[in-house]
Amino acid sequence: MNWVNLTGADLTGADLTRVALTEADLYQALADESTVWPENFDPEGAGVIYK
């Protein structure tokens, strides 16, 4: 999923541990405490909003 535009996507509950998010646009994408991110990925730094 490199270079994918996920702006505003609803990622609540998603398991993204095996997804390469290099250069993905996650500005204002939605997540919650059950969303699982790849190791060493900073969702807040990428613009993700937690609901």
Highlighted features:
51 residues; little secondary structure; two-stranded parallel ribbon; 2 strands; 0% helix
Account of the 3D structure:
This is Pentapeptide repeat-containing protein. InterPro entries: 5peptide_repeat (IPR001646). Pfam families: Pentapeptide (PF00805). This protein has 51 residues and is largely without helices or strands. Helices cover 0% and strands 8% of the residues. The protein has no helices and two strands. A two-stranded parallel ribbon has the order 1-2. The model has no long low-confidence stretch (mean pLDDT 96).
Number of strands: 2
- Assign the structural class, choosing from mainly alpha, mainly beta, alpha/beta, alpha+beta, or little secondary structure: little secondary structure
Strand order of the largest sheet: 1-2
Q: Can you tell me the number of structural domains?
A: 1
> How many helices does DSSP assign?
0
Q: Outline, from the CA principal axes? A: globular
Order of helices and strands: EE
Tell me the fraction of residues in β-strands, as a range.
5-15%
Instruction: Detail the poorly predicted runs.
Output: none
User: Helix content range of the residues, please?
Assistant: under 10%
Concise summary:
This protein has strands at residues 30-31, 49-50.
Task: Set down the secondary structure blueprint.
Blueprint: E1 30-31, E2 49-50
